[in-house]
TrEMBL record:
This is Myotubularin-related protein 12. Coiled coil: none annotated. Residues 511-530 are annotated as: Disordered. Belongs to the protein-tyrosine phosphatase family. Non-receptor class myotubularin subfamily. It comes from the Eukaryota. Residues 520-529 have a biased composition (Basic residues). PROSITE patterns: PPASE_MYOTUBULARIN. Pfam families: 3-PAP (PF12578), Myotub-related (PF06602). Keywords: Cytoplasm, Sarcoplasmic reticulum. The keyword Cytoplasm applies. It comes from Furnarius figulus. PANTHER family: MYOTUBULARIN-RELATED, MYOTUBULARIN-RELATED PROTEIN 12. InterPro entries: MTMR12-like_C, MTMR12_PTP, Myotubularin, Myotubularin-like_Pase_dom, PH-like_dom_sf, Prot-tyrosine_phosphatase-like. Residues 173-611 form the Myotubularin phosphatase domain.
Length: 716
């Protein structure tokens, strides 16, 4: 049975942003609804612009029943061109991947999105010419390689008025003052200094304009190998230990070059490692963590579990859900990354040892580990502005290659890897384990992951600060339309109104208490967690300091050979990590001190909101974290209105003027899909394994029951 909403008679035009151009369109397109196995849907118009693919039906023009969490840039039926993952055509009930030039045009179009939505369009009732135009247009504009200057980012920047919110508190780290302030905040300015050596990008186009290095590093050293082999400062712990990163030398080198680099590294090493006063541990992440290719393979398998076309597919996979989930290896990668971050935190917090993270470019896994360590150890990074500043520092200015890793330009799938998504997945584990420690919510993280594919903001659409600066000035694009004023994703008012932004802020956040002025002269505050750990310094040994006899071996390995075995051979007892981990978890949580994630067994979970939000069969009616948060927000609104009422009554006590209290909005019964998919029908099948469902398919009374326990023990 096909339930058809009749074709719309009135003309519906897409809402176009500044700089957005309509490229092609097709009328009488039928969009299937995803809720169940029936062919219900609605007729409308399918359009493609230089920014998005959009489906317009008569509901698109209605402002009635608008969701509370409406995105002002990307609507419910909009897909930005960068958000398109794969496009399939259906020919005689057979699916075929669509790329390049098409000889034959499909009767159905299925679009899989990177935010895990699935759109199903029937083109059977559309004119043949329109089918050719819309299908070839969508495939061409979303799948074929494009130049950087062809991104919608530039069209929007040159056409949109620049009226962004100036109250944004995020530190952008694009000035010398920002870096000096961060050094001052972390008390790292005793041993480290900001350098201007790369002004004009004379050292390297991959390095930021300004960065921080140990005081003893000379300008000549930085210039010698374009910044390679130089320890770059990330963050300083309260006890003075610092987290550093370094881009290694290329692995394939001739002997003479290798000897020169060895001597250079020897000199650098001697300047920064001075045992027993300055201890240093080096960690080559390329050998101690999964490769980018492994991460990409795992995520590709993982996301397939959630790109569900129909109800039948969902119930078919539900029976073997755990084995399918385990076989992807995605949760195991998250566990390994979190474990590595705990190891680094142990070195900094407990052993008072500097940690140097090494990677070929120091812009992928270095960014993940350094960001996670700061989120775990620095409560400022758990505030919204602090977390945004952290992303700016380590990722945006730090030079993470968003264009390549997200494959925004469709140039090479070989370079694609969900590195930033991996970080957000790891942070989510901490957010769901310790909600009061974070000023932001899981909804904030979900929206941030969606913003990766919105080319209205420059934040996630460049590979380096140099590329952003030259693009903004118009130099690299050979265009007269520069300079461009790019928007930053951190101005959430561009995407959401204040009511919607409330869902990004955590009402359970335990704000840091302000210190008592009378106690200022007392001893320096130490984290509650740190006081529970042994503060005695372990007896220094030759190996811990990596003395001279091991330096040659170390340098040789940094220059290209595997150093995992060497690095991991620590002097500490094998159970040192376990002891640190279990000792911390045996104490009460200090939400403003060190936070260690639980990583054993089922503690590592699937980020349900991001991955299950478009699957109605997986929703919890009246439940889920976000439904609870929405209720708390309602209560807070009621308390605030009562406070206003009390203040009014107090001020008007003399006149005796009385006003009625405005009652808060009555929340509808929400589900775990809220706020992304508000109005969802319940699945037509009960949450039973497929085999059980097939046995019971003829029992109509079971299907009609709602939220009722059915005892099947007699039938099994």
């Amino acid at each position: 049975e096909i339930h058809i909403k009749e074709p719309i008679e009135k003309e519906v035009n897409p809402h176009l942003l500044p700089g957005e151009l309509l490229l092609c369109e097709a009328s009488t397109v039928y969009k299937y609804m995803q809720e169940d196995g029936s062919n219900r849907g609605t007729y409308g118009k399918l359009v493609c612009t230089n920014f998005k693919i959009s489906f317009l039906d008569d509901d698109s023009t209605s402002d009635d029943n608008e969701p509370e969490f409406k995105n002002k840039i990307v609507g419910e039926n909009d897909i930005t061109l960068q958000c398109v993952d794969q496009i399939y055509g259906v020919y005689d009930e057979k699916k075929k991947l669509l790329t390049g030039q098409l000889r034959k045009y499909p009767e159905r179009l299925i679009i899989y999105c990177k935010d895990l939505r699935v759109f199903n369009f029937c083109l059977r009732y559309t004119k043949e010419e329109e089918v050719k135009r819309i299908v070839s247009g969508i495939v061409h504009h979303s799948q074929t390689p494009k130049l950087l200057k062809r991104l919608f980012l530039f069209s929007y920047a040159s056409a949109a008025p620049n009226n962004t919110d100036g109250r944004n508190q995020t530190v952008m780290f694009d000035t010398l003052e920002d870096w000096r302030d961060e050094l001052e905040r972390t008390k790292g300015n005793v041993k480290y200094k900001t350098v201007t050596t790369n002004e004009g990008y004379r050292v390297s186009e991959k390095l930021p304009l300004y960065f921080v290095v140990p005081i003893c590093i000379s300008e000549e050293s930085i210039l010698k190998y374009e910044g390679r082999g130089i320890p770059i400062w990330c963050w300083s712990c309260h006890n003075g230990a610092a987290l550093l990163k370094m881009s290694a030398f290329p692995k394939e080198q001739d002997d003479s070059t290798s000897q020169m680099q060895k001597a250079f590294m020897d000199g650098i090493y001697k300047t920064i490692s001075k045992p027993p006063y300055e201890l240093l541990k080096m960690d080559d992440l390329s050998s101690s963590l999964p490769s980018l290719q492994d991460i990409q393979t795992a995520y590709t398998r993982f996301k397939q579990l959630f790109l569900i076309d129909n109800s039948t597919d969902f119930w078919a996979t539900d029976v073997k859900w755990f084995s399918l989930l385990e076989s992807t290896n995605w949760l195991e990668i998250i566990r390994r990354v979190l474990k590595k971050a705990i190891e680094v935190a142990e070195c900094l917090e407990r052993q008072h040892t500097n940690v140097l993270l090494i990677e070929e470019s120091a812009t992928d896994l270095c960014c993940v580990i350094s960001s996670l360590v700061q989120v775990m150890m620095d409560s400022y990074s758990r505030t919204k502005s602090g977390f945004q500043s952290l992303i700016q520092k380590e990722w945006v200015i730090g030079g993470h290659g968003f264009l390549e890793r997200c494959n925004h330009l469709r140039k090479s799938e070989k370079e694609e890897a969900p590195v930033f998504l991996l970080l957000l997945n790891c942070v989510w584990q901490l957010v769901q384990q310790y909600p009061p420690a974070f000023e932001f919510t899981e909804t904030y993280l979900t929206v941030l992951s969606d913003s990766l594919y919105v080319p209205v903001f420059s934040t996630f659409f460049f590979n380096s600060q140099h590329q952003r600066d030259t693009s903004a000035s118009g130099e690299s694009l050979k265009t007269q339309s520069g300079p461009f004023r790019f928007l930053t994703v951190w101005d959430w008012s561009v995407q959401f109104d204040p009511k919607a932004q409330a869902f990004l802020n955590n009402p359970f956040y335990a704000e840091k208490p302000k210190p008592d002025k009378n106690q200022r002269k007392t001893a320096r505050f130490k984290h509650q967690r740190q006081l529970s750990l042994p503060l005695t310094q372990p007896k220094p040994s030759t190996k811990r300091g990596f003395f001279r006899e091991e330096t040659d071996h170390l340098i040789k390995n940094i220059l290209g050979k595997r150093i995992g075995k060497f690095i991991n051979s620590s002097d500490d007892p094998p159970n040192s990590f376990r002891e640190f981990y279990e000792s911390w978890h045996s104490k009460p949580v200090d939400y403003h001190g060190l936070l260690l994630p639980r990583i054993d067994g089922p503690e590592i979970k699937v980020w349900a909101q991001r991955y299950l939000r478009w699957i109605p069969e997986a929703q919890l009616h009246g439940g889920g974290t976000i439904a609870i948060t929405a209720k708390i927000l309602d209560l807070m609104e009621e308390v605030q209105s009562l406070q206003v009422k009390m203040d009014e009554e107090h001020s008007q006590a003399v006149s005796g003027d009385v006003h009625s209290v405005t009652t808060p909005r009555n929340s509808a019964r929400l589900s775990s899909l809220f706020p992304f998919a508000l109005l969802q029908r319940q699945s037509v099948k009960p949450a039973l394994p497929t085999s059980t469902w097939k046995d019971l398919e003829d029992e109509d009374d079971l299907v009609k029951r709602d939220d009722e326990f059915v005892d099947l023990s007699g039938d099994m």
